[in-house]
Amino acid sequence: MASRSSEGKKLANVDGYFHAVSEVKSSPSGVRYFDFKIQERDEKRRAVCFSPEKRDAIKEKEECKSPVRLLNVSPQKRKLFEPDSTEYKLTNQSKIMVTKNSTFPWADMSEPNKQLTVQDKYDTMTTGDIVSVKAKVVWKGEMETVYSRSMRKELTKCEIVLADSTGAIIATIWEDTIPHVCDQKSYVWSNLKVGLYKRKCLNGTKDCTVTICEDVSLSVESSAASEQLKPKKKETQDVTGRIVAVDVNKFFLCMNCKNGLASADDSDDDGEFIDYSPCKLRMLKENLDSTVSGSVIIVDESGEKFGSVLLPRECAERDVPIGRRNGKLQYF
After folding, report:
1. Would you give the end-to-end CA distance of the chain in angstroms?
2. The Cα angle at residue 44 between residues 43 and 49, in degrees rounded to 5
3. Up-side HSE of residue 85: CA atoms within 13 Å toward CB?
4. Which phi and psi angles does 80 have, rounded to 5°?
């Protein structure tokens, strides 16, 4: 049975079992959500819920392996790289109802030790699946420090390219796993999570393990695919000239999700508080961290104008730069 929401979108009711309920996360825009898998009669689908208060009830039904019916969920096509698949979106209108009898049984969907080839990731796996793979590291990038909104702390990550005889895939490894992984070495990886960022990829989890193994042979096709996935070297150019326009802005940061709130120049100087609707918080300005972004327009000695050049944060936080000389920004 289907109905329509107040916005006119088609809604559906779904029978099944819950699996792999995630923790509550925050999107880059500060929206809080969690996801899970729902096992239907003939397939499993990803579901995303934007009502964090529903998580405890859904997690309880997962642990009890109870058959359930989801009311008023919105079927939606997946992102660009999975156009033929559908996921469910839960909102405040969606409800969870326990059903006493189900026409099909609960099934174990975790398969944490299922070892797949790289090509299997593209052919059979969906976002959120936990898998293992035996593959060779054909490229290892530099370590980066990023802020985790869900964990509310800084973490170290490193991107790598994995390949076997069937294909290649990008993976991200974290924290203590990084020093144990070497370029051009082969490993058995377990507890990797299938993700989707521009294309299908793998992501290390807190339970990820890596064990060195015999060398994994590559095919001509997988070697070529590996080269395609390696990031291209960025080209740089030194510019000497005169800055003719400057745009530097200071932003307060939400203490919960670390997203930018409002420009310090645009905010009410007399107000003590800033309201941030995505996190539903009202925060004292004096307790907030801030960041700076800036850009300049430069005209070189020949009169050629270089469009807006983004300034590194450490440069924008200093006095306004007047140009580049020998590859370095020069300041007043």
Report:
1. 69
2. 145
3. 17
4. -50, -40
Fold held by 12-98: OB fold (Dihydrolipoamide Acetyltransferase, E2P) (2.40.50)
Count of beta carbons in the 10 Å neighbourhood of residue 26: 21
CATH 2.40.50.140 in the chain, residues? Answer: 12-98, 118-229
pLDDT for res 200: 83
pLDDT, tens digit, 9 for 90 and up, residues 83-125: 567 889 998 889 999 887 788 888 876 554 456 678 876 667 7
Query: Which tokens hold the place of 292?
Result: 């700076």
Q: Judging by DSSP bridges, how do beta strands 168-174 and 199-212 pair with one another?
A: parallel
Q: What are the pLDDT digits (tens) for 166-195?
A: 999 999 999 999 999 999 999 998 888 888
> How is residue 183 annotated by DSSP?
T
Q: What architecture is the 118-229 domain classified under in CATH?
A: Beta Barrel (2.40)
Is the Cβ–Cβ distance between 154 and 105 less than 8 Å?
A: no
**Alpha-carbon span 90 to 44, nearest angstrom:** 16
- Count the Cβ atoms, other than its own, within 10 Å of residue 72: 18
Residue-level pLDDT at 170? 93
